[in-house]
Amino acid sequence: MASRQRQEEEEVDIENEQQQEEEEEEEEEEESYLSINKLEGNGISAADLKKLQEQGLNTVQAVAFTTKKTLTGIKGISEQKADKLLAEAKKLVFMGFRTATDINKARSEIIQITTGSKEFDSLLDGGIESGSITEIFGEFRTGKTQICHTLCVTCQLGYSQGGGEGRALYIDTEGTFRPERLLAIAERYNLNGEHVLDNVSYARAYNSDHQLELLVQASAMMSESRYALLIVDSATALYRTDYAGRGELADRQKHLARFLRTLQRLADEFGVAVVITNQVVASVDGAGGMFNPDPKKPIGGHIMAHSSTTRLSLRKGKGEMRICKIYDSPSLPESEKPFGIYSDGISDYKEQ
Question: Rounded to two decimals, what is the model's pTM?
């Protein structure tokens, strides 16, 4: 009798252990990042970690991806402490070679957020890709901000509906964010308007330094809640006014590179889809410009070109029609598709 009771207790213990392991695995699947608190111990104090968090380093991955020079630049972090932090972080984060099979498997699990238009989604092979930067550029009234508003809603949809089951962060540099647009788009998807607005965190950036500082806050927020999308509309507007003339071009590009690198780090750490909009400028290339049907080009130069994973070019069509073209992508062929801008967001173009 006693042996049977002991056997039943052992079976219950095994079931509890299996359930706990399954729950831990589910948590790891849901959170692709590790909390920076896991580094505490082995000579690393809570005070050290707080100093890192104040600089926007909220995960183990963030520490592992950071250079020793950057860590020692933080007040109170010595070279010895920086070495210790990097060593402990790299024990928890794999940073070596992997097989192409592993990478292919990881890419198959990437979340794609619908734009609201089936034609637009087919152009992107499913939607806006998580874990990378998508740049959308075009002249005024081509639909850049309207796409951003639609994505703020669609990212909250379930995975089966083409969503990311997460919140959205919106950094606005031009003052064009309109919450009433989100309410109209939410109604289209039968979502509660108040809940949709509550799940969008908005901040207005007033200069290029402030724009970069907001990413520090964004990192802290992402480490506490599930975010699926980060939007910067527009990424370059403030740089055009904060840095004037060729004399400040080098400083502008350095600052822009830091901003874009921080965006990519957030995409890598938290697996969010990063969408940035960009302005265009007329290309004055002498006689060569006469043979170019569209002489406008995105600003930001090579820094912007190399930082963006996918670059989308928008242009106007007739009426509500807009045309999106794959300008640059490592995996998508160069092609274009029409879409429409309507009161309930981005959708397939409807001919009148």
Answer: 0.85
Closest to 267 (Cα-Cα) out of 154, 156, 134 = 134
At 309 the pLDDT is 94
Distance CA 170, CA 345 (A): 17
- Looking at 184-193, 207-216, 289-298, which range is the least confident one? 289-298
- Sequence-distant (6+) residues with CB within 8 A of 292 are 283, 285
Q: Which residues contact 177 (CB under 8 A, 6 or more apart)?
A: 145, 149, 170, 202, 204, 233
| Cα–Cα dist 286/295, whole Å | 11
Distance CA 205, CA 120 (A): 29
- The CB density around residue 284, as the number of other CB atoms within 10 Å, is 8
Tokens 């740049």, located at residue: 135
